Amino acid sequence: MTEELFRQDAYLKSCEAQVLAVNERGGIVLDRTVFYPTGGGQPGDSGVLRGADGGEIRIATTVKGEAPGEIVHVPAEGEAAPDVGATLTAEIDWERRHRLMRIHTCMHLLSAVLTYPVTGGQVGDGEGRLDFDMPALETTKEEITERLRDVIAGNHDVQPRWISDAELADNPDLVKTMSVKPPSGQGQVRLIDIAGCDLQPCGGTHVANTAEIGLVEVRKIEKKGRQNRRVRVALSEA
Known about the structure:
By secondary structure, the chain is an alpha+beta fold.
């Protein structure tokens, strides 16, 4: 298993790690990592693995491996594989990760501002979207933008906490996303608690306070089927 340092602290930018394996496709497995693997609508981290001699292996993305708890760092095309057993420094592209964290937390707030069942979603670099089971559009993108900005400016703390599988089963309303079920069967489920605003299962990375999200705007609302509405939100600098 790869130790998931990003679960303990989403603000860790680098760590020292040992190469456990290189798979048949060239994917690199480390004993510990700050790289978040693709999942829950959030893309995997990119960055570099740096050797003691200063040489770098560019990492294009990060994914979950076939074995339970395994995280695979996928090198960019043309990069050489490291030796198994080598000690490397794993360093994420922090600017990109921070934008993903800001947008991911914003998507949680969007699901609190629009209180409809969520049928899908995606976190991107500087922008994201949620799909809602919303038969009729009863608001405008300008109104949603204003409501989002008001909540963001409220300086609400964002913290992870854990509940048991049984507690989640007793509180099914915590699960907002109809298309993705939170992982269960491991005894505990991770929640993201945005104080006074939102509480739902999530394994992704988030900012520590809503004010850190900054200015956002709803760019587009699209009709996706008879009852589906897609709301696209972006950081204002994106």
